[in-house]
Every structure is written in structure tokens, then in C-alpha cells.
């Protein structure tokens, strides 16, 4: 999965021109790479269809070249297909692990505790797996090696009792990770034990530990465990040893359970918090993508979020549209003005400038019903056009007039700003 997706990006970056043929080739390459990584066929189709559609229809963001544009689309669509990450706040918590035998639970218990220890928290593990005889020694050793607190009872068979005592003995610790027994299948006995341990420990989080090599089967297992005891997030282990990692990742997306961590080797430090954006960036070749995304961010900031951009050039309804988009991200227009470099603040008393989410939506729908000519030159919008636009957008002529009134108010304001007549606090717009 790793090398083939990187190759796709390389192919795009090296191409002399971006045309339909290249897009089709890229889409096929992405498909092949995802199928090889065991991603569900339906998801592969969704991802590749979306890449194709966007690559052939979306306008290239100005400032990006067509190659960068395609890479951005590939990145975004693959990211969409990967399960979400799971943020655990750094505070006192109990984490209970569940999963089948051999999935990597015991190793993961130590890895998670170490993760928190590395963040400066007091972390410990409880050896609650009384089913697999070697689990106790294994966890004890790992805990010693990593400097973690440990509680276990070698001869005790009652896991519930161990967990209860462990929580008492380790109550000074910030984070306690509870290892539990697995079986070869999710059977009644295992479900009973998991439930009882959850009852006495009242964990803040229950993580399911899944072996990446099971690929797409991950979704079935996760669903079954979720139904039996309720799962907050998944830890995918043995990511290093399989070509099927994509299957487990996309399975998580499919069932909507986030991924907290991934295990990338047998050693305790072979472990990372799952960060979808970083992960996909790496799949595609980190350097290129990171630089590209930074560039995109800059452009978006400059184009949409820079209030000064509103002052440049002729002010049309297209700019109003952009402003509304920006407001979605930045808040009301008065806030945008506060960000202007010459640092004045504008208190907008004018009703015309008051903007609610509903109004914003309505204005956008109205603008979607306008012709290009009307958007660029709103002056031509007379009463018969107003009627047509209202019908086309399912609104009333009054609504269309309200939008035009908003536009005129903004335009006037822009004019004043451009002339250097900066509005002062408390300005009333004399319209
Ligand atoms: P448990 O039965 O669920 O407690 O599983 P263990 O923690 O004993 O792990 C089973 C095997 O998988 C052990 O040999 C571990 O060293 C190995 N293992 C666990 N996590 C990883 C991982 O992320 N990568 C690799 N390569 N091996 C792992």
C-alpha cells in the first residue's frame, strides 16, 4: 500500500500535463493500490469515483498548479475513506482493553500506558488476563522495562477480583490500563467476563484491540464486540506485518468507530497515536503533501479569509458569496473587519448586515439561481429578474430584495473603506 500510493503521487508530480488520460490512469492506480491493501471494493469505488469526478470537474484553486490540484484531491478522498482518530484527554482515566486472543492486547496494554507515561503521567497496568498463562509474566516484564506501575496475581484465576484489587492498589496512578482475557472467538464466557470486569472497573474507555492482518474482517469483529460490551475506539496492531492494513482502517470507517492507536512492531515503542491526516500524508509521501497542504492553507487564508481581499477590485455578488463562506469559518462580518491590518473595529448596527445561519443559507440558494451575468453585475437585476430568481430558488421576491439590499450595504461600505474613509466605532451606515 505504502509504495504504490507514493508512486501514484510521483506519477502525478512528474507528468508534463494533466489531462483526462492522466486522471484515468491515476484513478486506476489508486484503485489497484487500495484493492491490494484489502480496502472494501465498494469503498474503493467510492473513493476512485470521487477522485475522478472532482479531478475532471473542479476548478483548480488559483495558486496551485493542476498537478498539485490532483494530488490534493487524491489526498482528501483517501483521507475520507480512512477511519477517524480518537483523542483521549490527558487526565485521570481507566482504560479497559478487550479483544481476541493473540490480537496483541497484552503488548498493547503496556504500549498505551507507556504512551501516557511519556506525556508525563503516572501510568500503570493491571494483568487481568487469567486465561492465557503467559500473559501475567509478559505484562510484568513489559511494565518493568518501561517503568510502569503493575498489579497482577499469578495464581489467581478470578479476573474480576484482580481488577478490583488492582484498582485499589494503583489508585494513586493517573492512567490505568486493564488487560483482559481473550478467546479464539467471541463466546458467551468471554462476554460474561468482559461485562463483569467493566462493571467493577467502570472504565472511562473501552478499546478493542484488532490484528491488522484480518483486513476487512475487522468490521465484523468490531461490530460483534461493540454489541457485546460497547467499544469507544479501536487499536489496530501488527500494522507492520501485513499488506492488509487498509482493510482494517477502512473497516473502522465503515462501522463508524474511531481508531485510537496503531501498533507498528513488537517493541514497546513501536506504537503511535492514530492521526488520520498525518497517516495519509505519509502514505502518499509526506514531504510533498505537507508542503502542498501548507500552500493550500495559505491560499485559502489569503483568498477567502483575508478581509483585505474584499477591498480589492470591483465588488460583486460573487464576493458576497465568498464573504458568506468566510463568515461560516470566521464569524460575523464585524469580526472580519476587526482583523483588518489597520485595526479599527466596526460595530455594525445596521439590520441589513445582520446575518443568521438561515439567512446565509437562503442567500446562497438565491445566488445559485442567478446567472453569471447577474452575479457579476447585480445592477441589471430588475423586478422581472427578481421574480424569476425568487421562483427559481424557491424564495420570495422580498428575500431576493433583502439580498440585494445586503449587497448594496456591503458595497457602500467597501467604497468608503477604499476611499480611506474608515468607519469609526459605532458607525451608522447611512443608507
Ligand atoms: P494477546 O493474546 O492479545 O495478549 O496478544 P499479545 O500481546 O501476546 O501479542 C501476540 C503477539 O503479537 C506477540 O508475539 C506480540 O509480540 C505480537 N505483537 C503485538 N503487537 C504487535 C505489533 O504491533 N506488531 C507486531 N509485529 N507484532 C505485534
Automatic annotation (TrEMBL):
<keyword id="KW-0378">Hydrolase</keyword>
<keyword id="KW-0963">Cytoplasm</keyword>
<comment type="function">
    <text>Involved in targeting and insertion of nascent membrane proteins into the cytoplasmic membrane. Binds to the hydrophobic signal sequence of the ribosome-nascent chain (RNC) as it emerges from the ribosomes. The SRP-RNC complex is then targeted to the cytoplasmic membrane where it interacts with the SRP receptor FtsY.</text>
</comment>
<comment type="similarity">
    <text>Belongs to the GTP-binding SRP family. SRP54 subfamily.</text>
</comment>
<dbReference type="Pfam" id="PF02978">
    <property type="entry name" value="SRP_SPB"/>
</dbReference>
<keyword id="KW-0547">Nucleotide-binding</keyword>
<dbReference type="InterPro" id="IPR004125">
    <property type="entry name" value="Signal_recog_particle_SRP54_M"/>
</dbReference>
<dbReference type="Pfam" id="PF02881">
    <property type="entry name" value="SRP54_N"/>
</dbReference>
<dbReference type="GO" id="GO:0048500">
    <property type="term" value="C:signal recognition particle"/>
</dbReference>
<feature type="binding site">
    <location>
        <begin position="99"/>
        <end position="106"/>
    </location>
    <ligand>
        <name>GTP</name>
    </ligand>
</feature>
<dbReference type="GO" id="GO:0008312">
    <property type="term" value="F:7S RNA binding"/>
</dbReference>
<feature type="domain" description="SRP54-type proteins GTP-binding">
    <location>
        <begin position="258"/>
        <end position="271"/>
    </location>
</feature>
<comment type="subunit">
    <text>Part of the signal recognition particle protein translocation system, which is composed of SRP and FtsY. Archaeal SRP consists of a 7S RNA molecule of 300 nucleotides and two protein subunits: SRP54 and SRP19.</text>
</comment>
<dbReference type="InterPro" id="IPR013822">
    <property type="entry name" value="Signal_recog_particl_SRP54_hlx"/>
</dbReference>
<keyword id="KW-0733">Signal recognition particle</keyword>
<dbReference type="InterPro" id="IPR022941">
    <property type="entry name" value="SRP54"/>
</dbReference>
<dbReference type="Pfam" id="PF00448">
    <property type="entry name" value="SRP54"/>
</dbReference>
<keyword id="KW-0342">GTP-binding</keyword>
<dbReference type="InterPro" id="IPR000897">
    <property type="entry name" value="SRP54_GTPase_dom"/>
</dbReference>
<dbReference type="InterPro" id="IPR036225">
    <property type="entry name" value="SRP/SRP_N"/>
</dbReference>
<dbReference type="GO" id="GO:0005525">
    <property type="term" value="F:GTP binding"/>
</dbReference>
<protein>
    <recommendedName>
        <fullName>Signal recognition particle 54 kDa protein</fullName>
        <ecNumber>3.6.5.4</ecNumber>
    </recommendedName>
</protein>
<dbReference type="InterPro" id="IPR036891">
    <property type="entry name" value="Signal_recog_part_SRP54_M_sf"/>
</dbReference>
<feature type="binding site">
    <location>
        <begin position="237"/>
        <end position="240"/>
    </location>
    <ligand>
        <name>GTP</name>
    </ligand>
</feature>
<dbReference type="GO" id="GO:0006614">
    <property type="term" value="P:SRP-dependent cotranslational protein targeting to membrane"/>
</dbReference>
<dbReference type="InterPro" id="IPR027417">
    <property type="entry name" value="P-loop_NTPase"/>
</dbReference>
<dbReference type="InterPro" id="IPR042101">
    <property type="entry name" value="SRP54_N_sf"/>
</dbReference>
<keyword id="KW-0694">RNA-binding</keyword>
<keyword id="KW-0687">Ribonucleoprotein</keyword>
<feature type="binding site">
    <location>
        <begin position="179"/>
        <end position="183"/>
    </location>
    <ligand>
        <name>GTP</name>
    </ligand>
</feature>
<dbReference type="GO" id="GO:0003924">
    <property type="term" value="F:GTPase activity"/>
</dbReference>
<dbReference type="InterPro" id="IPR003593">
    <property type="entry name" value="AAA+_ATPase"/>
</dbReference>
Amino acid at each position: 500500500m505504502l509504495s504504490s500510493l507514493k508512486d501514484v503521487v510521483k506519477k502525478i508530480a512528474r507528468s508534463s500535463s494533466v489531462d483526462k488520460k492522466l486522471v484515468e490512469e491515476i484513478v486506476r492506480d489508486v484503485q489497484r493500490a487500495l484493492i491490494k491493501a484489502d480496502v472494501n471494493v465498494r469503498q474503493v469505488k467510492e473513493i476512485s469515483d470521487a477522485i475522478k469526478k472532482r479531478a475532471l470537474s473542479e476548478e483548480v484553486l488559483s495558486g496551485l498548479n493542476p498537478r498539485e490540484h490532483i494530488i490534493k484531491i487524491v489526498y482528501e478522498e483517501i483521507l475520507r475513506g480512512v477511519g477517524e482518530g480518537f483523542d483521549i484527554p490527558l487526565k485521570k482515566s481507566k482504560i479497559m482493553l478487550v479483544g481476541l486472543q493473540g490480537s496483541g492486547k497484552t503488548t498493547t496494554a503496556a504500549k498505551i500506558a507507556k504512551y501516557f507515561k511519556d506525556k508525563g503521567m503516572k501510568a500503570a497496568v493491571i494483568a487481568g488476563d487469567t486465561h492465557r498463562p503467559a500473559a501475567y509474566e509478559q505484562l510484568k516484564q513489559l511494565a518493568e522495562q518501561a517503568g510502569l506501575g503493575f498489579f497482577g496475581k499469578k495464581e489467581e484465576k478470578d479476573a474480576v477480583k484482580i481488577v478490583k484489587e488492582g484498582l485499589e492498589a494503583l489508585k494513586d496512578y493517573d492512567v490505568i490500563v486493564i488487560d483482559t482475557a481473550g478467546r479464539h472467538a467471541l463466546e458467551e464466557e468471554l462476554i460474561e467476563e468482559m461485562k463483569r470486569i467493566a462493571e467493577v472497573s467502570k472504565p472511562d474507555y473501552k478499546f478493542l484491540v484488532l490484528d491488522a492482518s484480518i483486513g476487512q474482517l475487522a468490521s465484523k469483529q468490531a461490530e460483534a464486540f461493540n454489541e457485546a460490551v460497547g467499544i469507544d475506539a479501536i487499536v489496530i496492531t501488527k500494522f507492520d506485518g501485513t499488506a492488509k492494513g487498509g482493510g482494517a482502517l477502512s473497516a473502522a470507517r465503515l462501522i463508524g468507530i474511531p481508531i485510537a492507536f496503531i501498533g507498528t512492531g513488537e517493541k514497546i515503542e513501536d506504537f503511535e497515536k492514530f492521526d488520520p491526516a498525518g497517516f495519509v500524508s505519509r502514505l502518499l509521501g509526506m514531504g510533498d503533501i505537507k508542503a502542498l497542504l501548507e500552500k493550500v492553507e495559505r491560499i485559502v487564508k489569503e483568498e477567502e479569509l483575508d478581509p483585505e481581499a474584499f477591498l480589492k477590485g470591483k465588488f460583486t455578488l460573487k464576493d458576497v458569496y465568498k464573504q458568506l463562506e468566510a463568515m461560516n469559518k470566521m464569524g460575523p462580518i464585524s469580526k472580519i473587519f476587526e482583523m483588518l491590518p489597520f485595526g479599527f473595529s466596526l460595530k455594525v448596527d445596521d439590520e441589513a448586515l445582520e446575518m443568521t445561519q438561515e439567512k446565509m443559507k437562503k442567500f446562497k440558494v438565491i445566488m445559485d439561481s442567478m446567472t453569471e451575468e447577474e452575479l457579476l453585475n447585480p445592477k441589471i437585476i430588475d423586478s422581472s429578474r427578481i421574480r424569476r430568481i425568487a421562483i427559481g430558488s424557491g424564495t420570495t421576491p422580498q428575500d431576493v430584495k433583502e439580498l440585494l439590499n445586503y449587497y448594496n450595504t456591503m458595497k457602500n461600505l467597501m467604497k468608503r473603506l477604499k476611499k480611506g474613509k474608515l468607519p469609526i466605532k459605532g458607525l451608522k451606515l447611512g443608507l
